[in-house]
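Technical note accompanying the year-one report. For the benefit of new consortium partners, we illustrate the data format agreed upon in the data management plan: each record pairs a sequence with a structure-token string. No post-processing was applied to the example shown here.
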Amino acid sequence: MGEAVHTDMMAEFLRASGGAVVMDGGLATELEAHGADLKDTLWSAKCLFTCPHLIKKVHLEYLEAGASVLMTGSYQATIQGFLSRGFSQDESESFLKLSVELACEARDTYLGKCSNSSDEPKDGARLRERPILIAASIGSYGAYLADGSEYSGDYGKEGNLEYLKNFHRRRLQVLAEAGPDILVFETIPNKIETQAYVELLEECNLHIPAWFAFPSKDGINVVSGDSLTECVFIADSCKEVGAVGINCTPPRFIHALVLSIRKVTNKPILIYPNSGESYDPVRKEWVACSGVSNEDFVSYVRKWHEAGASLIGGCCRTSPDTIRGISKALHGL
């Protein structure tokens, strides 16, 4: 699948979505709200073998809130991580496939409800048939390490191009074979991992469009200190990349970052900020600080869209209520 095909697919998806796409919100946040214990090196990926039904439930809640993109529960799911817990290679790969299957099942369930008015949600959420994409989530090498290094990009001696490519290759292939609509590389902390992903996409010939999302903690660079615009330029040069943008970044930085990204790419820009709170990787919990309320978060949405963002959702500590607010801000729904 060439660049023109990916471009056409994205253009049609945006057109069918009214020019602005609502993405989903924090998966782990809602899993915890439903009672899941995520204080684990696998984080939300633990639920793929402990409570997969909860993952599907959260996916469905985001669809009922208005999301048109579902991120799979594979952000911290790696073959190496599952192997370290005693699972076999086949079992480890099956968990990756399951993450895509659960999202696809939630989409099928939701669209089935749309054709049956008697299934209208009790909370008043509106059922609306629409195009819905399943995006297979691929977290960075730092997410596997579970030491917070996806927010620093400091991988030590293992942070070289070939090591990172070898780490991600089979995971990428398995997720692609599971049949998602999109591959989304999330929380990319540095330039070297950006390059590794681009080379893998070019070498593996997966025929699935990819999205790249970078975190920032200063509103200028990615979290490692590497130039955001240089990272975006690398992603933009790859014909398999259909959209680029920002994730897991405080809302106060988003507007300026969107303007910076627009200077180096004409591809669609996606943004899904966190709540503005900080995460303690040692205690594995969120520390309340300068987080914003749902109301404040949603108040930025129109400004972000006007600046050039066309796919908007939420990351850590956002909820279906956040997504419901984004949907209303963008589409009045």
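Partners are asked to follow this layout when depositing records. The mean pLDDT is 93.
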